[in-house]
Amino acid sequence: MGLIYYGYPKCGTCRKAKKWLEMNNLDFQEVNIAEAPPSEEELGKMIAASGLELKKFFNVSGLKYRELNLKDKLPTMTDEEKISLLSSDGMLIKRPLVFGDGKVTVGFKEDEFDKVWGN
Questions:
Q1: Helix (H, G, I), strand (E, B) or coil at 17
Q2: Model pTM above 0.85
Q3: Is the four-CA dihedral 118, 43, 31, 27 of positive or negative sign?
Q4: Coil, helix or strand for 105?
Q5: C-alpha count within 13 angstroms, C-beta hemisphere, residue 66
Q6: Residue 16 CB: number of other CB atoms within 10 A?
């Protein structure tokens, strides 16, 4: 399986991550996260592979996050409800999200990309 890059074209951080992937000659499938967010099943696999807390997958600086008052709602939600919410709206997901070969990165930090996706 190749890499899947979930990004948002208007996001500067996403563009930096995409450029990093291209400069490192990685083959990836690009998906607009706003138009086609990952399914609940895909998110479940990514969360398990990441070893990160589920809350790390939320775009806490996003407008949708604030509009829905998720800072207060998330602590009382089940993991299933959180994953369902994330899969319902790609703008709630921290981006870019890169997944493949049993590995995942959330957001873009060049040193982390070097470590996880570097050759």
A1: helix
A2: yes
A3: positive
A4: strand
A5: 3
A6: 16
Tokens of 84: 């369902």
Q: How many CB atoms lie within 10 A of CB 40?
A: 14
Q: Write the CA distances from 58 to 7, 20, 33, 40, 65, integer angstroms.
A: 14, 23, 13, 14, 8
Residue 97, token pair as written in the block: 């999200």
What residues form DSSP beta bridges with 71? none
| pLDDT, tens digit, 9 for 90 and up, residues 58-114 | 999 999 999 999 999 999 999 999 999 999 999 999 999 999 989 999 999 999 999
Coil, strand or helix at 27: coil
Residue 53 token pair: 């807390």
